[in-house]
Automatic annotation (TrEMBL):
AB hydrolase-1 domain boundaries: 5-102
Residues making up the signal peptide according to the UniProt record: none
Name the record gives this protein: Lipase
Taxonomic lineage from the root: Bacteria, Pseudomonadati, Pseudomonadota, Gammaproteobacteria, Vibrionales
InterPro entries according to UniProt: AB_hydrolase_1, AB_hydrolase_fold
Species of the source: Vibrio parahaemolyticus
Superkingdom, natural source: Bacteria
Length: 105
């Protein structure tokens, strides 16, 4: 829903009729979702390395790190720190990031 909101905002700001979406990893299914619920706003979707059959990394983490453990909390803090660093270096994003939710996505 965040991407759909961004697409609507972008189209309103630019006056364009449609967008071309490019999604990598979890962005692939996200871009396809937007195209499926609002095909009138999307000219094309390009998906690169999408997690169409799940994520091997997420499966590995879920299989080795117990939920609610100190190790899981440490991994979450490290992921949040990395996300913060990437946002600072790339110009930032004010969208919420949830490392645990991404494992289940």
């Amino acid at each position: 829903e965040q991407l759909l909101s961004q697409v609507e905002t972008l189209l309103a700001a630019t006056g364009a009729n449609k967008v071309n979406l490019i999604g990598h990893s979890h962005g692939g299914p996200t871009a396809r979702y937007v195209a499926s619920v609002r095909p009138d706003l999307v000219a094309s979707v390009t998906s690169i390395g999408g997690v169409n059959k799940g994520s091997k990394v997420a499966d590995l983490v879920r299989g080795t790190v117990p939920e609610g453990s100190g190790t899981e909390q440490l991994a979450v803090k490290l992921a949040q720190g990395l996300t913060t660093l990437i946002n600072l270096l790339s110009g930032g994003s004010d969208l919420d990031q949830d490392p645990l939710a991404s494992l289940a996505a």
